[in-house]
Amino acid sequence: MSFRLKDVPLLSRSTIDRAEHVRLDPEALREGWGKAKILRVDRRGKVRVEGTELVLDTAASVADGPGEAAVFLGVVDGSHLWAVRVAELDGTLKDLRGLGGVDDFTAELLSTAYALLNWHDRAAFHGGDGTVTALARGGWSRLTAAGEEEFPRIDPAVICLVHDGADRVLLARQQSWPETMFSLLAGFVEVGESLERCVEREVLEEVGVELRDIHYLGSQPWPFPRSLMVGFAAIGNPEQELVFSDGEIAEAHWFTRAEVRAALGAGDWTATQSGARLLVPGSISIARSIIESWAEA
Asked: Which parts of the sequence belong to the Nudix hydrolase domain (predicted)?
């Protein structure tokens, strides 16, 4: 049985014009600042909300200009959007995971802001010679004193739904997760490795299952801190012994489609279901999109 994603994953939906031509024009960035909106993000990744809405401040109320801290996210309805890291925020604070059912704009705004700010937090010095770097292109690159340019780092990772070709799917629980929380198998791509080979290796290392019929489903940014999740499905043999050789997985089980549908109906990892055997990831994760698509196929 093969299937496709029924919807574009939440964090992959695009509503913001990234306006690369504006990034390259310092004068345009300065001119747009007066009418721009800015998202303030604290050190824990939390932002101010009122009800279910993000609070976007006027950029001019935060600073006289972009400076060396704010990052340009794009343009919406003719206004520039920026984000900046701050030490503390007052009011009602939530992060992307805690917001619940977010709209496409909020999802893209937060995921892009998180990834860029997380990179800048770690990129103040050049990795080769240790010299200080400065923000450039509205925050989409950094420059050394010698003019060498570096761009935001992205860490590719694969995530795979392993099924038996019929009515069962293999879900796993990491050592640090509560006993009812299960998800798909995933791992980072290694140097010199294709995405498909990474899928084979990670599943074999984590649960000892050999795969066939690996096929691509879709991808999603995952800004924790700056990953790109590349989704796959593959067929495994449920009769093969599960072996947890790399120490990451505490347990894994083959669940039926009926069990997965019941778990989807119960909510997600934030649900408190007494006696529940299985809870699955929330709506912002591509894991949820893949599991839903398989369950409805």
From this structure: 152-277
